[in-house]
Specification:
Elements (H helix, E strand, L loop, with lengths): L2 E6 L4 H11 L5 E5 L14 H5 L3 E4 L13 H12 L12 E5 L5 H9 L3 E8 L7 H8 L6 E7 L3 H13 L5 E6 L4 H5 L8 E5 L13 E2 H7 L10 E7 L7 H12 L3 E7 L3 H10 L2 E6 L11 E4 L1 H6 L4 E5 L2 E5 L2 H13 L8 E5 L3 H12 L3 E6 L2 H9 L4 E4 L8 H6 L5 E4 L24 E4 L8 H8 L3 E3 L2 H16 L5 H20 L1
Parallel strand pairs: 1-2, 1-8, 2-3, 3-4, 4-5, 5-6, 6-7, 8-9, 10-11, 10-12, 13-15, 16-17, 16-19, 17-18, 19-20, 20-21
Antiparallel strand pairs: 12-14, 14-15
Bound molecules: 2'-monophosphoadenosine-5'-diphosphate.
């Protein structure tokens, strides 16, 4: 089973020990990053394994490999030798592992390490992404049978993750560490087991001044939210695909449900530069089901072998399940949206309601179809006016451009006739996107019901303006939870028990926000 390695990057031994002691319960192995220590402190590294009391990796990462050591190679070899010197017959008092690079060539030091049971981690850091055949690379790195090989690639695309995963699957070496560094490789750290990794590196992010490596996860999040130690080859994997995917509530929601129900499953963020590559990755990882979010709800259609009637009808998909024939698509935004809005306004349908929908993307397709199904009349406004026209034509709705983006002003003039309810479906105002107000030319009268489907932040500039004008407002949190409950049914095959749902609702937005800000 893959182990959790806590990477220690403090400036002093004492501080590193404090951090280790605080997070010891989550830690199987710890890595002393000597390159992060103050120069004076480096003199005392030899005692660290004894003080730590758990297996320690000795690492002096060079700046060219993404570390902080800028001294010459001679000074580094000397420091490594100091760390491995005076080996104790009781191996617990020695470093359990030493990380040395594939181009490191000091046989006497390696020999000394082996003699006293210190295992060599033979590492290769590719900070410029994949520039060569990494499968061949990983298979050629090991110099002796007991070495652990480590390949860490700074990935900038989902395709690079796919290549690392392929290399991992083709690699016959028993003990290896495969890491995709950076935002797009985050799931390689959570699913280290499926990447065939001996360990996953993590940090105590709230305590550390400097990161061990880009994309390293917080050790508490890894252990408590993703229940890393419970992930085995039997664990069912679900997740969410999107970009940039920095602020989705779904990982919190699903993992909390799995944990409360004691289900052997995990829900993982899959930030993606290509939905097709990510589905290839998901197949290799044996993922069972995925939520699909911005901007892939339409792009994913091309990979579906089967579409539910609703997906077929609206042309957008936010839920996929894997079957033996391929991916099957469904949409839970529709029911999530309409049940949230109807409950909020206390009505059973939208008859006689004149509604403005801002946006014409994936989620707007779901919103428009529900407004139509429930008897509402709508105006659709979008930055790219022809998309608004196309969507509106399905339902005989009116349409227009968003004026501030160079569209015509026809849209704004029409809002006053469609302002019982205004629904904002674009990504404008969402964390990670442009923080502005997509409707800043419109003045709220205060009588409109205003729904913004964004929930991070809880109040967007658009919603804030509506609140200030006295409108009744609701953000997208309630909708996202409702649609997630429907996804749960499609993933797991049964509903979330009511008792559990009440428990989750009482934890609600506050608990999730607490996790986000931690
Ligand atoms: P989703 O699945 O959440 O609907 P999407 O399909 O990518 O995501 O759609 C994003 C929506 O936000 C679109 O309506 C998009 O407008 P365009 O069709 O003109 O691209 C809208 N949007 C994104 N950025 C915007 C911006 N800066 N100003 C106005 N609208 C924007």
């Amino acid at each position: 089973m893959s182990k959790i390695c806590l990477c220690l990057t403090a400036k002093t031994i004492k501080r590193n020990l404090e951090i280790l002691n605080k997070y010891r319960k989550y830690t199987d192995i710890t890595e002393l990053r000597v390159d992060c220590l103050d120069p004076d402190e480096r003199l005392y590294i030899r005692r660290f394994p004894e003080l730590a009391g758990i297996p320690v990796i000795l690492t002096i990462r060079r700046d060219i490999d993404g570390g902080y050591f800028t001294g010459g190679e001679g000074a580094r070899v000397k420091l490594l030798a100091n760390g491995l010197a005076y080996a104790n017959v009781d191996s617990r008092f020695n470093f359990a592992y030493v990380d040395i690079e594939e181009d490191f060539d000091v046989p006497s030091l390696e020999e000394a390490a082996r003699t006293f049971g210190t295992r060599i981690i033979r590492s290769c850091h590719k900070l410029d992404g994949i520039t060569e055949d990494i499968s061949a690379k990983i298979n050629s790195m090991q110099r002796a049978g007991d070495e652990i090989v480590k390949l860490a690639v700074a990935v900038k695309t989902s395709n690079e993750v796919l290549q690392v995963l392929r290399a991992a699957k083709n690699c016959t070496i028993q003990d290896k560490i495969m890491v995709c560094m950076g935002h797009y490789g985050i799931y390689s750290r959570i699913l280290a087991e499926r990447f065939g990794s001996f360990l996953t590196y993590s940090s105590a992010l709230s305590e550390s001044e400097i990161a061990g490596a880009p994309g390293q996860m917080d050790v508490c999040e890894l252990s408590e939210l993703y229940r890393f130690r419970k992930i085995t080859d039997k664990t069912k994997i679900y997740g969410i695909v999107g970009n940039p995917l920095k602020s989705s509530v779904s990982p919190w929601f699903f993992n909390t449900v799995f944990s409360l129900e004691n289900t052997n499953a995990v829900y993982v963020p899959f930030p993606a530069t290509s939905v097709s590559d990510i589905l290839d990755i998901a197949e290799k990882l044996e993922v069972q089901g995925l939520s699909i979010t911005v901007p892939y709800k339409e792009a994913v259609l091309q990979r579906l072998v089967k579409r539910s009637p609703i997906v077929q009808f609206i042309g957008a998909c936010n839920t996929v399940n894997y079957s033996k024939d391929g991916w099957i698509g469904d949409n839970t935004d529709c029911i999530g949206f309409s049940s949230s809005l109807l409950d909020f306004i206390g009505k059973k349908n939208l008859k006689y309601q004149k509604i403005t929908i801002i946006g014409a993307g994936g989620v707007a397709h779901a919103v428009a179809s529900e407004v139509h199904r429930l008897g509402g009349k709508a105006l659709i406004l979008n930055r790219t006016a022809h998309k608004a026209r196309k969507l509106a034509s399905n339902y005989n709705f009116r349409w227009g451009g968003l004026p501030q983006n160079g569209g015509d002003s026809q849209g704004i003039d029409l809002i006053s006739k469609y302002n019982d309810i205004i629904i904002q479906t674009t990504s404008v105002g969402m964390e990670g996107y442009e923080i502005s107000d997509p409707l800043d030319l419109y003045t709220f009268s205060g009588k409109e019901v205003v729904m913004d489907l964004i929930y991070t932040p809880a109040v967007t500039p658009f919603l804030r303006r509506a609140m200030a004008a006295g409108c009744r407002t609701i953000n997208g949190y309630d909708m996202v939870i409702r649609q997630a409950c429907q996804q749960y049914v499609r993933f797991i095959g049964g509903e979330i028990p009511q008792k559990l749902l009440s428990q989750l609702n009482s934890m609600g937005e506050t608990a999730w926000n607490k996790i986000r800000s931690a």
